[in-house]
Inverse folding.
């Protein structure tokens, strides 16, 4: 499946921060990836929701090639039209306010945290986040992330962050007060196995933020850009955040992140308060504009709902047949729990069968296929899952 010499070279050249699967890819097209031997794999992870439009979407490829031939980057000291056009696209389809660009989801979380802390001032230094949430691995983002396993090796973290269970309404109300500058949450917690946050919890967060003058920060880094069906997952909740974080699929596979605020909060940061050398370069913005044009299609968004329902129905049948313990999902963001801690082995068996997935715990496997995935590949995944689960 993979050249052992390549594995040895990787081990000698790269810090051991990832547990890679034993396969090397050389080409991608739509929902498919191909190794050096030409074997086809169905990518049911989309680069952890990075490739929502699929691999090498022709519109994204053309936009990159055209822009790369003219201007790749020039820094944020100058005007470039792709940056402005992308900011207008995000503004007009979301919160109506201005945008800050960065390079990743973690950087978007850092920027949102700085907006909240500056908005609150020294008298309001506290942030309330959710247990099991994930907002990145840089220091501020890691402090928001409610997962001790990721935090413990790096303590002490940024002070003033309190965590509440995702369904603890009373706990949230008790945690938010006059010293709170922000509440931060995801609509669906992806990194712990696709755990939806109850809508009443999100609505209460909005109410408490309004009551106490805090900002509601919604992290749409994984759920946004049609992953759950609508362009942004919070649309299905009926709650509008004050600040929203984006990244992952925004660039169609090219690194870019963004923070957008409502108009009343979009001037908190002033020149010198924050910045990024590489952010919003013409190349990344051109790729993002092409990807966003694909994701903006209402037919694609409706297709995500339909395909997601098809996938979840198949996963539910595995539960009904006793092969899985539970299944859940929103759009094309799904997961199953296993009756025994065999998730890593299941991922290995799926890889052997030609399907990419990942285990978020010893019992949970997550699926985030590209939004352009075809029904036949989803059915093939379900068949492979049934066979692999039966062999565990």
């Amino acid at each position: 499946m993979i050249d052992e010499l390549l594995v040895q070279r990787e081990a000698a050249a790269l810090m051991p921060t990832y547990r890679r699967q034993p396969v090397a890819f050389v080409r991608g097209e739509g929902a498919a990836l191909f190794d050096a031997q030409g074997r086809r794999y169905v990518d049911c992870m989309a680069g952890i929701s990075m490739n929502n439009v699929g691999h090498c979407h022709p519109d994204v490829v053309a936009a990159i090639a055209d822009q790369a031939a003219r201007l790749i980057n020039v820094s944020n000291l100058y005007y470039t039209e792709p940056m402005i056009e992308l900011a207008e696209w995000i503004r007009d389809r979301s919160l109506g306010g201005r945008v800050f660009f960065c390079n990743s989801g973690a950087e978007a979380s850092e920027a949102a945290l700085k907006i909240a802390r500056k908005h609150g001032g020294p008298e309001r230094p506290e942030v309330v986040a959710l247990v099991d949430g994930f907002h990145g691995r840089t220091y501020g983002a890691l402090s928001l992330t409610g997962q001790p396993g990721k935090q413990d090796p790096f303590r002490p973290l940024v002070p003033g962050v309190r965590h509440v269970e995702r369904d603890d309404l009373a706990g949230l109300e008790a945690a938010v007060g006059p010293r709170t500058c922000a509440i931060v949450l995801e609509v669906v917690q992806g990194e712990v196995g696709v755990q939806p946050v109850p809508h009443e919890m999100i609505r209460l967060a909005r109410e408490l933020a309004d009551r106490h003058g805090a900002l509601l920060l919604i992290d749409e880094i994984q759920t946004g850009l049609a992953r759950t069906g609508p362009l942004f997952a919070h649309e299905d909740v009926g709650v509008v955040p004050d600040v929203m974080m984006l990244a992952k699929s925004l660039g169609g596979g090219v690194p870019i992140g963004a923070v957008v605020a409502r108009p009343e909060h979009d001037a908190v940061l002033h020149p010198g308060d924050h910045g990024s050398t590489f952010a919003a370069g013409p190349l990344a913005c051109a790729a993002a504009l092409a990807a966003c044009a694909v994701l903006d299609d209402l037919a694609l968004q409706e297709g995500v709902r339909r395909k997601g329902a098809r996938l979840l129905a198949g996963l539910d049948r595995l539960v009904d047949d006793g092969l899985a313990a539970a299944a859940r999902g929103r759009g094309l963001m799904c997961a199953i729990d296993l009756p025994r801690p065999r998730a890593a082995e299941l991922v290995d068996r799926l890889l052997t069968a030609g399907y990419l997935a990942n285990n978020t715990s010893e019992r949970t496997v997550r699926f985030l296929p590209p939004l352009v995935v075809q029904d036949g590949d989803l059915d093939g995944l379900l068949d492979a899952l049934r066979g692999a689960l039966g062999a565990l």
Remarks:
- The longest helix spans residues 298-320.
